[in-house]
């Protein structure tokens, strides 16, 4: 970690000991992060078939897999869906999470207990959440369509119509992501001194003004971190979409994450090379935003 | 965390009511899962759907007992293995990073933060290629190692943050008494970091228990499949038995429920630890 004052002399023996403690985790990092990533890069640069995948003698083809992927008719829709999915999920998760955090920040009876219960959707295995939402949104027997029917709206084919599938997975993913935003923003709210609110109240500021003049500006560092972490997490969402729609129907809810899996594992004839290429584009995006996150966090740690 | 009572207790009952309502809306899908798990086969496609299980049946749960126990046992084994591996790797690393000031420690910490950002399916594809060559596909140890990558970066972060707070004087005193670094770590630092061990173990267990991506790519179709795949096959195979699917989902959610009830403060601490620095 970055230290401000230069540390006192570091003894050589302690250096050895320190790295002895770090050796297992360093080996682990190399073997189980760096090497899989390297293999993935290698996959994307060769022309793999099932046989050469096993034998490991696939010819090197440079960026041909990336060219294939860019030319693929799925590329445009997958890009749009990834951007829409990420942007809508982030915006709504953050807005709902913030509203709930402000609400639960007032200490009323049961507020702590109820706030803890809000964590449930985030703690559930994704397959559980996704299959529950699949049944809620089922065209014929789902509760959502029954409720819509009761108020006179025609049933919607949430998961089986190309115009609704993306909306459906977005709804489920927002439900899963709200608790994280709530908890992090709530802990951010607690570091805002109560005296500021008291002073503002004395000056006659109403609740709305207090939110926009005090809470929102002072929460900006926490908001930035929450949104950036959310961005990195949302970009890689795979389980929810795959379980609910498999990216379909007809690619209507395909994102880069599901497309990459579809190419590599979802077909009878796996296209490992293009699958890895799509995945690497996703890694590149995640790492870029990850570095932005680190910069923001480091800047905040200094001030 | 300090709690400042800004509001007088009276006049807040309507906030409690609103809070209850919001929580009810948020948790409604969870209730629905329970409701469907108890619904009879013939009522499943009733229109409108029954809001309460008026004729509760345990057929779904019987199906779980008959068919899903091996999956649950595998998940338990993999979860415990992941916890052990994660703590064994991350606790010494946290000690070194927090207290021993290794040269290059900053770079290592940075690499862990980056590692956390790599999408799971990319890791899965890399693991698949490697395991295929090593013959580790469809094996429990292979899945444990893969699942631990979900938790190790987070665990190193938590241990480092927590162990930084252990007073230097205490470690100094141990050294004066002649304890070596390993002894200091084992007898002082680790026992004092109990809370961090609990937090890390909870999340490592929960993440490996919930893992679907690694399970789906690395052990799919093998002899040892975790419960997430059990549910997934259920959805694929018998579309009709939704009470059995939802009963499995309820059982698969039990660890999350237990953890929330017994260890809520560790969870909240863990969620915010990654994002907010005190």
TrEMBL record, chain A:
The chain crosses the membrane at residues 16-35, 83-104, 116-136, 164-185, 218-244, 271-294. Keywords: Cell membrane, Membrane, Transmembrane, Transmembrane helix, Transport. Its main location: membrane. It is a multi-pass membrane protein. It is found in: Cell membrane. PROSITE patterns: ABC_TM1. It comes from the Bacteria. It holds the Pfam family BPD_transp_1. Residues 79-293 form the ABC transmembrane type-1 domain. Belongs to the binding-protein-dependent transport system permease family. This is Sugar ABC transporter permease. It comes from Streptomyces lanatus. The lineage of its organism: Bacteria, Bacillati, Actinomycetota, Actinomycetes, Kitasatosporales.
